Amino acid sequence: MVKTLWESHLPLPLVGRGKVRDIYEVGPDKLLIVASDRLSAFDVVLPNPIPFKGEVLTQISVFWFEFVKNVTPHHLITADVNQMDLPQKLTDQFSQYLKGRSMLVKRTVPFMAECVVRGYLTGSGWKDYLKTGSVCGHKLPRGLSQCQKLPTPLFTPATKATTGHDENISFEQMAKIVGEKNAEQLRSHSIDLYQRGAEYAASKGIIVADTKFEFGDLDGKIILIDEVLTPDSSRFWPTEGYEPGHDQPSFDKQIVRNYLLGINWDQKPPGPELPDSVIQKTSAAYREIYERLSGKKVSS
User: Fold this and answer.
1) Ordered structural domains, the chain, with CATH
2) N or C: the chain end with fewer CB closer than 10 Å?
3) CB neighbour list of residue 53: distance below 8 Å, 6 or more residues apart
4) Is 289 helix (H, G, I), strand (E, B) or coil?
5) What are phi and psi of 143, to 5 degrees?
């Protein structure tokens, strides 16, 4: 059995190890992104892997990259291990692990900002609204309910932290980081992608409450990178039974967040062990959202 890659490294130069993904160099212009089954909540990696999570994150991103390819250029080259032109020794030893959870991508210079789009009043946005009547500086009408659909989607960027907590920033702060012209383009791309994704998801009985995108610069052009509309980067709710005024059932890691809030964890490392019931419920939710959206079963 192949050793899991959160315990060992591939025999390639390691560019970075994030909360969930490991990124390796494949020549000067390509990267290999491997999605593990690690799960982070409140920016802390938890000790329990979630079965099939890496496959879901990869395959749902591949689905969306294909969905938006005529709208926004992206970094995906292939998710087929047999087409990746990797060293033979590596594929002989690790191909079964890489299958279904890895992507060969174009190497870009990432913009150091998270492009968050909120379509519904939930999560930290709801808390902000209760305190200030605004969400990340966007003034909203009085009397809105928890999980209510917003009048228009809000672009609320955040810092891009490799460790610790991302922090919400204003559009003006983002413009100082990435440049005003880039910031305007990133905002436009993000809102457009959110609206297209949300419209498609609605046809499958899914509400996309919010999501985040990441972009990179490739030879002076902005392209979509990392993951797209996954259960790690988005809140997905079933349209059936949707009712503002309270938390909604979810197809994402909110299941784990709710459990952790219920045990009053202080949100500091190390993360607590998850009960098997929460692990299995989360794994099932990740698989269901992929299968609903794509019409396919998760392959591994």
Assistant:
1) 14-107 (3.30.200.20), 110-253 (3.30.470.20)
2) N
3) 20, 35, 36, 37, 38, 39, 282, 283, 286
4) helix
5) 85, 15
